[in-house]
Give the backbone structure.
Amino acid sequence: MFHRAYDGGAGEVAQVTGAMTALKKIAGPRTFLLVGDSKLISYTNAAAMTAQGVGFVAPLAASRVPAGLFAALPAGAGTEVDYVAARDAGKPAAARASYRVLEDEAGMDLHGPRKTGPVVHLRRILVYSSANAAGQAKARAAKLAKAAAELDKLVRTAGTRFHPTDDAVAARVQAIAARRRAGKYLRTAITAGPAGKPALAWHFDQDAIDAEAAADGWYALLTNLEHGQASPEQVFRRYKGQHAVERRYGEFKGPLAVAPLFLKTNRRITALITVICLALLIFCLAERQVRKALAPHGEMMTGLPGYGPTPARPPSPNPPASKPGYWTSSTSTSADPAGSSSEIPCAKTGASALTRVSLEC
């Protein structure tokens, strides 16, 4: 087990190299795969991992995706992947989310601080999720509906004591656009109405809405794995395996019943986290032994009085948000039910006012 406490002001990006080196030492001769979030992607991290022979997979932040990349893809682009998300396991096939993957042959280059420094080239895998597409379309419709209601109200109040001048109306329009994140679609005109009072006319640019909708459901994964090591589908599946790591959030907050505590010194926080990590490690090992014992029975618990068959691999609940002023932490594990895993997913990090913690089990 590995855990490390960081100062509360330490950035997550700067923790990756140290954690990677320690985890690689624990992994020994086995293949080491680091799966992280978008903060993992930086020139320093990518260069260090590539130099150390550590493979990684992480999503590319939406703000760093080249403009028009997704919108330019033809409808139905990509190869469909036979993957069922845990949340869809109990749904009929027609109600399950579908996924497609496509490799961007251009990849992505990360440039260092020096113009003459080496460039880190990464593969870029484009992924389409029908569930993400539906969620983005629903969210966009909801925010536009709220913006429309507020703009209609402003049309009625323009020129009144609430918004008596052009500047007041314009300021309110800007506030609505920013609050509802509708600025890229909103088109307005403020003219002089009867008696010289300002009048507002507005509409949403349907072309802008359609252009954004064309990219719904798409996101990008970056990896330094070679083509011979993993196909686009395999990269996607390895990234989706991250849920097995993050499921330890549920055990941290649930079975282990770790309650929020306020501690005055970093030393006490570190000591408490060490004890909790030992408890989590024991919990994980006990769970692993139970799964191995249930393997001949399809990983289903049977024969318990009053209970029907229960999966041995329950879905992970969403961890509750931490409270300000309290420390929080996160955990991960690479324990394989069959004891034959050759890859270790990455760890998450958590922060508090007193310290930042990185844990791996």
